[in-house]
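Researcher: Watch the backbone:
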Amino acid sequence: MEQTSPLVAIILAAGKSTRMQMKPKSALPLAGKPVAQWALSAVKETQPQEIFVIVGHEAEMVKNAFGPECKFVLQEPQLGTGHALMVCQRLLEDFVGDLLVVFGDHPLISGQDLQNLVAYHRQNKPAATMLTWLRKGESSFGRILRDENSKVLGIIEVPDASPQQLAIREVNLSMYCFPCPAIFDVLHHIRADNKKKEYYLTDVVGLLVQEGKRVEAFTAQHPGTAFGINTPEEFARAEAFLLKNVPLEQV
């Protein structure tokens, strides 16, 4: 049997829940347990050797929501998703393997989708593998740009997209597999030249393509994986799905 590479999972949970106007999303009770525990259960299905959670805003509350199984890394100040991964570099300086990166505000993530993402990355060994979704309805997620041969070229965010690009069905779920330590070399080349002055993890994809590196995209199969919680209405839909099996229509 072929030996698989070691895996470490990183869950990003440092941001403010400004649109929810409540405590951090990870700490909100959802169908009987914190949002964090739903996401953590899915991540654990990939059998990582360690799970790091990036905390920042209301750090202690978020730590309590995830519990003692995880190791916590403080991101202070919070300078974006790319910066969130950068703060792990010192802790992973001796680690050689793969990193699974997910967001803690997707409580309906399918563990099977994450397992499939990791398996695909291990089999194909690209410079990065991102999890995508073929949307049915409107979506605020960035669109996946491909060439005529279906090669991934990059990600275009909705505010910057043309009408033709907005029509693209394949969207980025901001869940990735990266080889370690190679990913940290790329992270140090991203720039905060945007309105928020933040370091975006999505910029890694474009940089890798510019360097001639291969980026792969694997399509999730479960609609819950594509369902993030950013508003009270989305929170209610997630709870209805978990408690009453109400379908997540038009994801």
